[in-house]
Specification:
The structure holds 2 protein chains of 2 kinds.
Chain A: E1 2-11, E2 14-24, E3 29-33, H1 40-47, E4 55-60, E5 63-64, H2 70-76, E6 77-80, H3 92-98, H4 101-104, H5 110-122, H6 138-151, E7 156-160, H7 168-185, E8 188-192, H8 196-202, E9 205-210, E10 213-219, H9 220-223, H10 226-233, E11 239-242, E12 245-248
Parallel strand pairs in A: 3-8, 3-9, 6-7, 7-8
Antiparallel strand pairs in A: 1-2, 1-4, 4-5, 9-10, 11-12
Helix pairs in contact in A: 3-6, 5-6
Chain B: H1 3-23, H2 30-62, H3 74-88, H4 94-97, H5 99-124, H6 129-153, H7 156-166, H8 175-194, H9 196-202, H10 206-211, H11 216-238, H12 244-255, H13 261-286, H14 293-316
The chains are: A alpha/beta, B mainly alpha.
Keywords (chain B): Cell membrane, Membrane, Transmembrane, Transmembrane helix, Transport
Transmembrane segments (chain B): 7-26, 38-58, 78-97, 103-122, 129-154, 177-196, 223-249, 261-282, 289-310
Subcellular location (chain B): Cell membrane
C-alpha cells in the first residue's frame, strides 16, 4: 500500500503541492486529474522519489520511500515520465530489456528474457522489436517505454500523462492495456491524465488537485458529476451516460 | 559488420601501428632505441585509455557529445599550475627539476580544483548540468586569461621552457612517472569497470535511471570525480591534448552503433591508441620532429569538431 501523508513541495516561494494526503488502494487504477499547474506531476514525482518532499512523507508498505533500498524500491514501484528524450541509439527490445535491470544488473538470464518477451507481446511490439527507437512514431515509442515498465514487473506502475501526443486509437489501446494489467495481473496503476473522459471511463478512483491542494478523492462515480467537477475545474460540465460510461461534455461549457 | 569484428579490426590496427612505431628505421643501437620507444608506447596506451574512458562517461552523464572534461577547466588548471611555478619559482626551482614533485603538484591541483568546483556547485542546490558546464567554461576562460597574463610578464627564456611543458609530448615522458600514473589509473579503471552497466542505464537519463534503482545523483558525482582523476593523471603525465577525447569518443559512437559502455569505451580506447601511436610516428619520422603530436592531433581534431558542430546544427535545424 502507498500512503501519501501531508506532503508539501515548494519551488522557490510558491507551494506547488500543499499538505496532500492520499492512500493508493491496491488493485485499482487511480487517476490524478486537475487543471494545469495543479501539482499532479509533482505529486507523482514525489511518490516515485524522483523528487524529495519538503515536508510530509510517502510510505510504501509502512516504510518511508527514502529509506527503501533503491534497487528494492525499483522492484516494487515503476515510474514513467512524459518526456523521454534519449540520445543513444537503442532498439525497442534493448529498451524493454532495461526494465530488467533491478533484477539482472545488466546480465539478462533466460528468466529475464521471458519477461521481456511477454512485455513486448503485451504491447504488440513483436514485429518492431529490432527497430531503433528513432525510427518509430510517437505512439510506438510510448508503447515501447510502457513495455519497459511492464518488464520491470512492479506491483505499482506510475505513469505521468502517457497519452500525451497520442491519437485516439493509441490512447484507447494504452488505457485498455492498463485496465488489463490491473484486472488480469493485479497491478496497481496510478496515472496522471489530462483528458477527464479517459479518467471517467477507465479509472476506479480519482484524485483531483487544484492549486496544489487536494480537492476531491474518491471512487470515480462520486467525482464524475457536475457539482464535483465545478469545484475542480470552475466549469459547468454536463454529464451524459453512454453504454454505462459517464462522458463529460465540456466542449461548449461556460467558463 | 558485427561489433566484435569491428573491434578485432581496430585491435589489429593497434598492433600494426605499435610494431611500425617500434621497429621503423631502427638504426644503430636497437638496445638503446627500442626500450625508449616502448616507454612512449606504454605512455600512449595508458593516456589513450584514460582520455577515452573519461570522455565517454563524461558525455554520458552530461547527455551531450560535444563537451569534454577539459571544458570544465581541468586543462586550464594544468597550465595555471605550471605557469605559476615558472612565474614565482623559476625553471631552476625544485618544483620543475624534481619530476615527481611537479607531477604530484599538477595532479593534486587539478583534482582539488575539480572536487572544489563540484562540491561548491552541488552543495547549494541541485543545479542542472548545463549551468555546471557553463560555469566550468567561464572558469576555464578566466584561468586561461590569467595564464596569458602571467606568460606576458615572464622572462622570454623561461617562457620557452614553459611552452614545451604546455604542449603535450610523449617524448619527454619519464619511465618512473609512468609507473606512478599507471598505478593511479589502474585503481580508477577497476572502479570504472564495475560501473559500466550502471552507465548504460544512466544514458537513459535521470528519471529512467532512478526508476530502475540507480542512485543517480550520487553516481553523477562519482563519475565526475573518476573522470577528473583520469584526466588529471594523463594531463600531468604528457600535457593537455584538447580535442583528443572528443575525436575518439565520437569516432567510437559512429563506428560502433551501440549503447553499451563496455564496447564504446573499448572502441574509443583502440581508436586513441591508433591515433596517438600513428600521430607520434608521423611527428617523429615524417615531420622529423619539426612539429609535435599535439599540433597534429589538435589540427585534425579541430577540423572534426567543426564538422560535428555543422552536422549537429543541420540535424536540429
Amino acid at each position: 500500500m502507498i500512503e501519501i501523508k501531508g506532503i508539501t513541495k515548494q519551488f522557490g516561494k510558491k507551494p506547488v503541492v500543499e499538505d496532500v494526503s492520499v492512500t493508493i488502494e491496491q488493485g485499482t487504477i487511480t487517476s490524478f486529474i486537475g487543471p494545469n499547474g495543479a501539482g499532479k506531476s509533482t505529486l507523482l514525482s514525489m511518490v516515485s522519489r524522483l523528487l524529495d518532499a519538503d515536508t510530509g512523507e510517502v510510505l510504501l508498505d509502512k516504510n518511508n520511500v527514502k529509506r527503501w533500498k533503491s534497487t528494492e524500491f525499483a522492484k516494487r514501484v515503476s515510474i514513467l515520465r512524459q518526456a523521454n528524450f534519449i540520445n543513444v541509439r537503442l532498439t525497442v527490445r534493448e529498451l524493454v530489456a532495461f526494465g530488467r535491470y533491478p533484477y539482472s544488473k545488466g546480465r539478462l538470464t533466460s528468466e529475464d528474457e521471458k519477461f521481456v518477451d511477454q512485455a513486448i507481446e503485451y504491447m504488440n511490439l513483436a514485429d518492431m522489436q529490432d527497430k531503433f527507437l528513432d525510427e518509430l512514431s510517437g505512439g510506438q515509442k510510448q508503447r515501447a517505454f510502457i513495455a519497459m515498465v511492464i518488464a520491470q514487473d512492479t506491483d505499482y506502475i506510475l505513469l505521468d500523462e502517457p497519452l500525451n501526443n497520442l491519437d485516439m486509437k493509441h490512447s484507447v489501446q494504452i488505457m485498455k492495456i492498463l485496465r488489463k494489467l490491473v484486472d488480469e495481473l493485479g497491478r496497481t496503476v496510478v496515472i496522471v491524465l489530462h483528458d477527464i473522459n479517459f479518467a471517467s471511463v477507465y479509472s476506479d478512483r480519482i484524485v483531483a488537485l487544484k492549486n496544489g491542494k487536494l480537492v476531491k478523492n474518491g471512487p470515480t462515480n462520486e467525482i464524475i458529476n457536475s457539482e464535483a467537477l465545478r469545484d475542480i475545474y470552475d466549469m459547468d460540465i454536463p454529464i451524459q451516460e453512454q453504454n454505462g460510461c459517464r462522458i463529460c461534455v465540456y466542449f461548449n461549457s461556460h467558463t | 559488420m558485427r561489433n566484435s569484428t569491428k573491434l578485432i579490426i581496430l585491435f589489429v590496427l593497434v598492433i600494426i601501428s605499435i610494431l611500425l612505431y617500434g621497429f621503423y628505421d631502427i638504426k644503430g643501437g636497437f638496445d638503446y632505441a627500442f626500450p625508449r620507444r616502448m616507454t612512449r608506447v606504454a605512455a600512449m596506451v595508458i593516456t589513450g585509455i584514460a582520455i577515452s574512458y573519461s570522455t565517454v562517461v563524461f558525455q554520458t552523464i552530461t547527455h551531450n557529445r560535444i563537451l569534454t572534461p577539459s571544458v570544465m577547466g581541468l586543462g586550464s588548471m594544468y597550465e595555471v599550475v605550471q605557469t605559476l611555478i615558472y612565474f614565482f619559482a623559476g625553471s631552476m626551482s625544485i618544483w620543475i627539476v624534481n619530476k615527481y614533485l611537479n607531477f604530484g603538484a599538477a595532479i593534486t591541483a587539478m583534482i582539488l580544483f575539480a572536487l572544489l568546483l563540484y562540491r561548491f556547485l552541488f552543495r547549494a542546490d541541485k543545479h542542472p548540468i548545463y549551468l555546471l558546464l557553463l560555469i566550468g567554461m567561464i572558469i576555464g576562460t578566466l584561468l586561461g586569461s590569467l595564464v596569458t597574463f602571467l606568460q606576458v610578464l615572464i622572462d622570454p627564456v623561461e617562457y620557452l621552457g614553459l611552452q614545451t611543458m604546455l604542449f603535450a609530448s610523449f617524448s619527454k615522458v619519464k619511465a618512473e612517472l609512468l609507473y606512478i600514473a599507471a598505478g593511479i589509473l589502474l585503481i580508477a579503471f577497476v572502479y570504472g569497470y564495475f560501473i559500466m552497466k550502471k552507465l548504460d542505464v544512466m544514458s537513459l537519463g535521470r528519471e529512467n535511471s532512478i526508476n530502475l534503482g540507480i542512485n543517480y545523483d550520487r553516481m553523477v558525482m562519482n563519475v565526475l570525480i573518476l573522470s577528473s582523476v583520469l584526466i588529471a593523471t594523463s594531463t600531468a603525465l604528457v600535457g593537455p591534448i584538447t580535442f583528443f577525447g572528443l575525436i575518439v569518443a565520437n569516432l567510437s559512437y559512429q563506428f560502433l552503433v551501440t549503447y553499451r559502455h563496455s564496447v564504446l569505451i573499448l572502441g574509443a580506447s583502440l581508436f586513441s591508441i591508433i591515433a596517438l601511436v600513428g600521430g607520434q610516428f608521423l611527428a617523429e619520422h615524417i615531420f622529423e620532429l619539426r612539429t609535435t603530436i599535439s599540433v597534429i592531433i589538435n589540427f585534425v581534431g579541430g577540423i572534426y569538431f567543426i564538422y560535428l558542430l555543422l552536422k549537429e546544427s543541420r540535424a536540429s535545424g
